[in-house]
Design goal:
alpha+beta, Ubiquitin Conjugating Enzyme, 3 domains, four-stranded antiparallel β-sheet, about 50% helix, elongated, RWD domain-containing protein, UBQ-conjugating_enzyme/RWD, RWD_dom
């Protein structure tokens, strides 16, 4: 029975407030109506919701919409209590339209304690909070960008004193650690040297030297042209040796003229 009464009242509300921009249907059981000119201090939104037992019970009255953030708390509580009092006198019958129109008729009385100007103290407080938050964020950012002494020392080692990175700052040493065969990183070697106690002799013994695996990998990278020239030179040298070992007179004259 209550659902049938709610359906009938819903159709009536749609027909009455059709084209009214202040009326808004959130769903089949919740409605909002905006009073006053938008942006004005005396403008607010009233929300009415139907419970399952409506209209045999009171509807839910709500003024907690974000649009009402400028209103005083005691003003909203006063409006809610008076609307519920009016609704209590209409229990058992459709009352949503009645409550909306009752607020319209008593709007001036309901907002008598609401300031006519927006409270500037709220905006000032918000500005203070924003400034504090911005200041804290700036301090945290500066604190995060701070480097430790060790980091500054490593960074300075990679610079040429003018703020520019020197050539080969990111190269990694390929020297093998004696006795372990491990290729340590440059930073680890520097840290080991910094933490090494003074007055200790680390000269390797003959046994350590004989067991050390040395890296004979050529450090110079040859281009394809230089490699080809070396091969040609080697072939010419072999040819000369072979000819001289047999008979020096057997060398071609043209070949001797070239060299």
């Amino acid at each position: 029975m209550n659902s049938e009464n709610q359906d009938e009242e819903l159709e009536v509300l749609r027909s009455i407030y059709e084209g009214d921009g202040s009326f808004r249907e959130l769903n089949h059981k919740s409605f909002q109506y905006k009073y006053g000119i938008e942006g004005e201090p005396h403008s607010f939104v009233l929300e009415i919701s139907w419970p399952e037992s409506y209209p045999e019970s009171l509807p839910d009255i709500n003024l907690d919409a974000f649009y009402n953030k400028h209103m005083k708390t005691h003003v909203k509580d006063n409006i809610k209590s008076k609307v519920l009092k009016e609704a209590d006198a209409n229990v058992g019958s459709a009352m949503t339209y009645t409550l909306i129109e009752w607020v319209k008729e008593n709007l001036e009385e309901l907002l008598i304690d609401q300031p006519s100007n927006l409270d500037t103290s709220i905006s000032v407080a918000n500005l203070d909070i924003e400034e504090k938050v911005e200041h804290l964020c700036k301090d945290n950012k500066e604190r995060r960008t701070g480097l430790t002494k060790a980091q500054k020392r490593r960074q300075w080692d990679r610079m040429d004193g003018k703020g520019e990175k020197i050539r080969g700052y990111d190269w990694v040493d390929k020297k093998l650690d004696l006795g372990s065969g491990v290729s340590p990183d440059k930073t680890e070697l520097r840290q080991d040297l910094e933490t090494t106690p003074t007055g200790v002799d680390f000269t390797p013994t003959r046994r350590e030297l004989t067991s050390t695996r040395l890296d004979f990998t050529p450090k110079t990278r040859f281009s394809p042209e230089s490699t080809a020239m070396q091969q040609v030179s080697s072939l010419i040298f072999v040819y000369l040796v072979s000819c001289l070992s047999t008979r020096a007179s057997a060398l071609p004259k043209t070949f001797l003229n070239v060299f």
